Amino acid sequence: MHVNITESYLAQYGGVAAGRPDLHPVTGAQRRFLTMRRLAVGTAPIVVPLYFEFPRGTVEPARLEEAAACLAARHPALRMRFDTDAPVPVQRLAEPEGHVRRLAARAGESTADALRRALLAWVTEGPVLRLLLATSDDRPDHETLAVVVDHAACDEQSLGLITDGLTRAYRDRTSAREAKADAGRRAVEEYRDAVERQLAV
Q1: What is the C-alpha separation between 23 and 89, in angstroms, rounded?
Q2: Is 173 left (phi over 0), alpha (psi -120 to 50) or beta?
Q3: In Å, how far are 65, 71, 106, 130, 189 from 48, measured between CA atoms?
Q4: Which of 36, 54, 74, 200 is the most buried (most CB within 10 A)?
């Protein structure tokens, strides 16, 4: 008898997600990422970092945090938390959150070394989009902004959307509350529909 892996997954997902609007299915690609993580115990998750350099003090962390939360409010993929439920892989919808962390290099470390150390220590719990502002003594007048995304939550096409959306939200000082009120439920429904259409294909 032919067993369709996606149909089997959707049947399991339907059993745990009934009456729980915060749960969403994962795509086939995401399911493979999560399976690989469970098997590769002790290995750092695959993340996608993009680096931008600015004169030190140019970036306002609080404003950047609000911009990241605004972006997550508009794009539910950045609000999801990957999880398993008995033990079906799922995405769990969370509130939009901006995660900005200042990172100072240790003695003798370069900015690149400090960022590499932080990325290797990435834990999968928490936001899939995180921003790191790193400085070091070897370049005291500069700081590096790392825009980091869990690879299970993004692909090459979405990276441009993320950087463009973050830039616009930072420039326009849009609040996450305004963005959620504007996009809100419609954006979540559109995201669920996109995932379900991928699974159907």
Answers
A1: 10
A2: left
A3: 19, 17, 23, 10, 26
A4: 74
pLDDT tens per residue, range 101-113 = 999 899 999 999 9
Residue with tokens 């259409």: 197
Distances (CA, A) of 16 to 25, 88, 137, 163: 10, 8, 51, 35
Q: And the tokens for 173?
A: 């000082």
pTM of the model: 0.90
Residue type at 4 in one-letter notation: N
Radius of gyration, alpha carbons of the chain? 18
Hey, CA dihedral for 168, 172, 174, 180, is it positive or negative?
negative
Pairing of strands 47-55, 142-150: antiparallel
CA distance 58 to 164: 18
pLDDT tens column, 111-147: 999 999 999 999 888 899 999 999 998 889 999 999 9
Whole-angstrom Cα distance, residue 125 to residue 182?
A: 27
d(CA 150, CA 129): 7
d(CA 13, CA 85): 9
Distance (Å, whole) CA 187 – CA 194: 10
Q: How many CA atoms lie within 13 A of 123 on its CB side?
A: 2
